[in-house]
Write a structure and sequence with these properties.
It is a single chain. This protein is mainly beta and 116 residues long. The chain folds into 2 domains: 53 residues, SH3 type barrels; 45 residues, no CATH class. Helices cover 0% and strands 38% of the residues. It has no helices and 10 strands. Strands 4-3-2-1-5 form a 5-stranded antiparallel beta sheet, with no helix packed on it. It has a 5-stranded mixed beta sheet with strand order 8-7-6-10-9, with no helix packed on it. Strand 2 and strand 3 form a beta hairpin. It is globular and about 40 Å long. It starts with 13 loop residues before the first strand and ends in a 10-residue tail after the last strand. 21% of the residues are buried.
């Protein structure tokens, strides 16, 4: 099996956690390619394998995210390209990722992910 970097995967849908879930393999704020969606669950690509997650826990989109996810409570942002976490105080409008070198805007404050 060949490994394909996340930034080269194409998917019709992408998903991230809507809220904090215990014992879940997903990293908060990171987006994952969606392999399939059923009425109550979705199969996501997580560490190069399919993982089933209840739809109630997910935020889905039909386009690949192109903005940093800012997790307000934890005070870090997640790169939309490589899922690298970066500690931030006050999130800037635009930021370059030290890992993948991509430069992306920060998601709007009203969309920031606040985990309980």
């Amino acid at each position: 099996m060949t490994t394909q970097p996340l930034d080269t995967l194409s998917a019709e849908r992408w998903a991230r956690l809507r809220e904090e879930v215990r014992r879940c393999e997903l990293r908060r704020g990171a987006w994952y390619p969606v392999l399939s969606v059923a009425p109550d669950e979705a199969v996501l690509v997580v560490r190069r394998r399919g993982v089933i997650i209840p739809l109630a826990y997910l935020e889905l989109t039909h386009t690949r995210p192109d903005r940093w996810t800012f997790l307000a409570r934890e005070r870090y942002a997640v790169c939309p390209n490589c899922a690298e976490r970066v500690a931030v105080g006050q999130p800037p409008a635009r930021m370059r990722c030290g890992k993948c070198r991509g430069s992306f805007e920060m998601e709007p404050a009203q969309q920031a992910v606040v985990m309980a």
